[in-house]
Recover the amino acids of this structure.
């Protein structure tokens, strides 16, 4: 019944540093501007995509930044590896992690999750008569839910990129993908037929972290909220 | 025919595991330490069966765990049975049937294993140990507070002194939504958005409630700040009464156990969904899992009740490591009374069943750290 090592379980709460997970790619630039307005300045090589470093210290001693794939931001935060993160609402819709709270809409990275199909077939068929349809996407759950809501089974072909190739090469009838300007669709002779959701990036926090360290996490939410007010 | 190799004999079904020495022993000791605190506060132990007919298992509050319950058909009665996924509904059944005439408030405790069809995102476990208390027949802030205070004392008994209780009011959001006049589809979307604390979706679906809800959503945190936000919020009278009850519960807890750390999340309504009043979730700093959960519910037809269930597996992962008994090797022919005395002092004695050439080597081989040598306890280096 004797404790061998009380130190491990009873470390002071406040000393653990926080991790902020940020997505590589599309919205990294917009994120940088927002971080600056929130008074957060990561090490200079953070927005250099060529840098091999993954974890960056910041001007805040209690907060480090990690740079991971957008889908992984949600996973890091859901499992508590990072306490805070920034990721698109598309990622949250896809994973639907109950451990993630999304208390702030950051209004950056605006785009939409849409259904698209080849220009030749768009509008030529009545989807309500379908029993099932083959869809290429990197959002299998969003696609299944969307079509199931209309009574159609989605046979999902899960791709990690270049969805636009799938209909032309006979891999699927439709695609469900992220659309920002629509130029990639047009270049591949695809037409956007339905918008599933408009998405922007969210500040996300780990549920348990908010419950156990409400002052620190709440403080960061307030800083980002104030930074949004300035824009 | 499949050419797959046969499964490894050690492979268990997903979410199930073996506990080995010394963890199995320390787990049992920890459960008993928790139960001792419950018993010391007058909570008497009951032991419901693992299986019961699904009509009784899913009656009342049991309905909430119906989809998490393994079911099988009783070959004797040909009726469907369920393997318990939560013990509280069973204790509620006992309280309203066999113990219907026992004096109220009725204080009962239990410890045992539950099985769930699926694990959750953070822990894939499908077999979950529970150790809990139920306080049946009284609806008061002091009753809610008693369970928080006893829970904190039980966790302190296993070395967890710095836990926090997150208090919630799972009835607040449904009551606000019901009186909001929002369309049913918006109410469903709003409930989901609040569950995820998705402020953007709350604003989209919240109509006239959006401002209040977002303020409450962002007020989650330390008890004083959250209570201030609740007092400032525009709440209709029935919801105002609920908030008043939460405040009274906080005051009752602080009066009895000033050191317990409390947080409040006014818009959270997650969990096993049979709760009808103030609920609590237990967290430990730096741990990403819940150590326990409890709250107010209706026992049987209309009896007020409140409970708290601790999860010993999670408690042990958060608690300081516990030292198993020290193993002492007793060579063949050693004095039996000496070994008996060692056991009485809390040592584990490992008896040689036959003489051997090198007792010290044999002691080490059997994972003993000490041995008896002519009646004296000596440490093996």
């Amino acid at each position: 019944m004797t404790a061998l090592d009380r130190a491990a379980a009873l470390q002071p709460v406040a000393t653990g540093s926080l991790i902020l997970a940020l997505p590589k790619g599309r919205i990294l630039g917009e994120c940088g501007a927002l971080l600056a307005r929130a008074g957060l300045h990561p090490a200079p090589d953070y927005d250099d995509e060529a840098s091999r470093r993954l974890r960056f210290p910041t001007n805040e001693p209690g907060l480090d930044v990690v740079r991971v794939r957008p889908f992984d931001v949600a996973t890091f935060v859901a499992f508590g590896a990072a306490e805070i993160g920034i990721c698109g609402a598309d990622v949250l819709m896809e994973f639907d992690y109950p451990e993630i709270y999304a208390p702030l809409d950051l209004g950056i990275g605006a785009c939409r999750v849409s259904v698209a199909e080849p220009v030749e077939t768009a509008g030529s068929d009545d989807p309500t008569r379908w029993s099932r349809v083959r869809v290429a996407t990197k959002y299998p759950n969003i696609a299944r839910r969307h079509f199931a809501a209309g009574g159609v089974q989605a046979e999902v072909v899960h791709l990690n990129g270049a969805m636009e190739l799938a209909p032309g090469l006979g891999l699927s009838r439709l695609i469900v993908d992220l659309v920002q300007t629509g130029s990639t669709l047009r270049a591949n002779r695809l037409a956007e037929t339905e918008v599933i959701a408009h998405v922007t990036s969210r500040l996300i926090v780990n549920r348990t972290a908010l419950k156990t360290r409400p002052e620190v996490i709440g403080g960061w939410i307030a800083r980002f909220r104030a930074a949004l007010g300035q824009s | 025919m499949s050419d797959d190799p046969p499964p490894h004999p050690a492979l268990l079904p997903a979410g199930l595991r073996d506990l080995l020495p010394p963890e199995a022993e320390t787990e049992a000791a920890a459960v008993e330490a928790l139960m001792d605190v419950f018993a010391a506060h007058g909570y008497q132990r009951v032991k419901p069966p693992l299986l019961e007919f699904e009509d009784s298992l899913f009656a009342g509050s049991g309905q909430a765990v119906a989809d998490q319950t393994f079911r099988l058909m009783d070959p004797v009665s040909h009726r469907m049975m369920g393997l318990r996924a939560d013990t509280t509904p069973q204790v509620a059944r006992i309280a309203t049937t066999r113990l219907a005439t026992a004096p109220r408030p009725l204080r009962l405790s239990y410890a045992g294993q539950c099985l769930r069809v699926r694990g959750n995102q953070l822990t894939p476990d499908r077999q979950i140990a529970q150790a809990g208390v139920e306080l049946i027949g009284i609806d008061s802030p002091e009753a809610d507070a008693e369970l928080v205070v006893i829970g904190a004392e039980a966790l302190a008994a296993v070395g967890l002194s710095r836990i926090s209780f997150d208090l919630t009011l799972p009835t607040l959001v449904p009551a606000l939504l019901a009186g909001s006049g929002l369309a049913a589809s918006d109410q469903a979307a709003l409930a989901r958005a609040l569950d995820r604390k998705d402020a953007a979706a709350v604003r989209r679906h919240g109509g006239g409630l959006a401002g209040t809800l977002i303020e409450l959503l962002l007020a989650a945190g330390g008890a004083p700040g959250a209570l201030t936000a609740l007092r400032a919020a525009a709440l209709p009278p029935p919801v105002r009464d609920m908030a008043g009850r939460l405040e009274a519960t906080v005051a009752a807890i602080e009066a009895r156990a000033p050191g317990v750390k409390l947080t409040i999340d006014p818009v959270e309504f997650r969990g096993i969904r049979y709760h009808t009043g103030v609920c609590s979730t237990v967290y430990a700093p730096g741990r990403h899992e819940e150590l326990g959960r409890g709250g107010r519910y209706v026992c049987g037809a209309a009896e007020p009740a409140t409970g708290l269930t601790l999860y010993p597996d999670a408690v042990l992962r958060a608690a300081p490591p516990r030292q198993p008994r020290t193993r002492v090797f007793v060579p063949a022919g050693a004095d039996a009374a000496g070994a008996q005395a060692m056991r009485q002092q809390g040592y584990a004695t490992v008896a040689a069943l036959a003489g051997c050439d090198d007792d010290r080597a044999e002691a080490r081989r059997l994972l003993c750290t000490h041995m008896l040598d002519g009646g004296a306890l000596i440490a093996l280096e």
